[in-house]
Amino acid sequence: MNTNSTEYRLEGDGASIQSLPKISLHDHLDGGLRPQTLIELADEQGLEVPAADADGLAAWFTEQSNSGSLVEYLKTFDLTTAVMQTRAGLARIAREFVHDLAADGVIYGEIRWAPEQHLARGLTLDEAVEAVQEGLEQGADDVRHQGGGIRTGQLITAMRHADRGLEIAELAVRHRDRGVVGFDIAGAEAGFPASRHRTAFDYLASQFMPVTVHAGEADGLESIRSALFDGRALRLGHGVRIAEDLLIERQDDENTYVSLGPVAQWVRDREIALETSPSSNLQTGAITAWGDELVDHPFDLLYQLGFRVTVNTDNRLQSGTSLTRELALLSDAFGYDLDDLETFQLNAAAAAFLPLDDRDELAELIQDGFDEA
């Protein structure tokens, strides 16, 4: 799979979307493997894969992921995590991950992953984090040597159905000066609210560690409420079901009149970023309440209402996508132009888990890049 091989250009001015500077906030390490790498690592470890060639394996992932269910979608990760159990494997995957981001025009990427899922072959939690950081740094060095530039940060994820939240939170804090920029919880959302990990979130707050929480994807407003209240989330992973707290009062030929419920009002007014992932949201059924095509996605309504929307890939392998492609799909669906795409990137820069000066620097790089487009 090479999602960068297609040339995506904006209608009208013809700007190349791939060449624009971009920021990726929601991108899973175990959802971004190169199919050929997966095949090679599986062969080294004596594991079977459902297809013998890279194109066939990429097609298998996409087919398996188009289930309309987050639970079924997550089953594809059994295969990817199986080959991510050694230091060398983790480092290689992380290094290639950075190469692929840079090739897609990403200048800053936050890479999330759950170390607790990568201990089957004897690694400790700390060794796993160190291996990924080694790969990320090697990848960034490679990009610099090729005349480019990219910065990355790890988001350490705890699995919400497990009981290791505090342990993983402590892991994140231990590595905060060695590549880790924030904390996340992920996995099956329904039935596993952020409140299950309240002790971990209390600890993270005491350490001033920023938090994003998967919420509003496979569950609704109560999940989002728990992410905000129990998790003190500064961003919402996906968050699209915040649209359930919007009441469309009336529409005419030119305008839609909407009132916001208390949760939506809080998220918008506090500029809590929504880490939307359009293709993934379709695959997992996150937008079923509004339809089953991209044009039905509440993204545009949230954008028009002033929510801090960002565009992400979630899992590039499962969705057969790239950040460039996601932006192109949204542009086709809603008629976005260069200014809109710049707004999405500036939203992401403002929401990045970086110091203010670094976020301002990212914003300047984005503005300069779009001015040159």
From TrEMBL:
Required co-factors: Zn(2+)
Keywords assigned: Hydrolase, Metal-binding, Zinc
InterPro entries: A_deaminase_dom, Ado/ade_deaminase, Metal_Hydrolase
Annotated Adenosine deaminase domain residues: 21-367
GO molecular function: hydrolase activity
E.C. number: 3.5.4.4
One Pfam family recorded for the sequence: A_deaminase
Family, similarity comment: Belongs to the metallo-dependent hydrolases superfamily. Adenosine and AMP deaminases family.
NCBIfam families cross-referenced by the UniProt entry: aden_deam, PRK09358.1-2
Protein name: adenosine deaminase
Organism: Agromyces lapidis
